[in-house]
Specification:
This protein is an all-alpha fold. Helix content is 76%, strand content 0%.
Length: 204
């Protein structure tokens, strides 16, 4: 039993090494510019060892995208306690997500290619982008509705419209930054959050 447990743990650790190596390479060289051989070398294993865990490059990409989201949520402490209005915490998270996107240019670009479709990336990225947007919209809309119910958010606010506005703003700011790296994406998102707080909250 001990040997089985050790083997399982080693397999989990090896898989994590592969995913982290791929995440770094996709972020620096792009999806098309990264080979499975390069990922295997970066992870310190053979290509056959990599294929034992991920039979295709698309399967590896799917796990990389999932890991990117996990790392983002961990980095912005999405589950931490917060004493103020929940919608304010959501706006803080919006800022922190954009800040993290700035440090992952190629993966941010990959997300945009996935959202709009491209021959450069597989269908799995499009499915990921759609689900990510759907979940983000649902969560934001629910937080705004909750804020209305408890009196933190103006009663005439439209939860779905607010969620769509936030998502569109993040996407638009990232797109401007992808086109021009000198664009102050963080400054723009701070200005947006200030405006939204002033217009949305009962007590800005």
């Amino acid at each position: 039993m001990a040997k089985t447990h050790d083997a399982e743990r080693a397999g989990i650790e090896r898989r994590a090494k592969i995913v982290n190596a791929a995440l770094t390479l996709f972020a620096t060289q792009g999806y098309r510019g990264t080979s499975l051989m390069a990922v295997a070398e970066a992870a310190g294993i053979t290509q056959s060892g990599l294929l034992h865990h991920f039979s295709t490059k698309q399967a590896l990409l799917a796990e990389v995208l999932a890991e990117r989201d996990r790392q983002t949520f961990d980095a912005v402490e999405i589950g931490r306690d917060y004493s103020g209005p929940a919608v304010l915490r959501a706006l803080e998270i919006v800022h922190d997500i954009v800040e993290r996107s700035r440090g992952n240019r190629e993966l941010t670009r990959l997300g945009h290619l996935g959202a709009f479709g491209s021959n450069e990336i597989p269908e799995i990225a499009l499915a990921w982008a759609r689900e990510r947007t759907r979940t983000f919209h649902a969560n934001l809309s629910a937080l705004v509705a909750e804020g209305i119910a408890v009196g933190d958010v103006r009663a005439d606010a439209d939860p779905d419209a607010v969620a769509s506005l936030v998502i569109a703003t993040i996407s638009g700011l990232e797109e401007q930054w992808l086109l021009d790296e000198s664009f102050d994406m963080l400054g723009a998102v701070r200005a947006f959050v200030r405006l939204l707080r002033h217009d949305l909250l009962v007590t800005p």
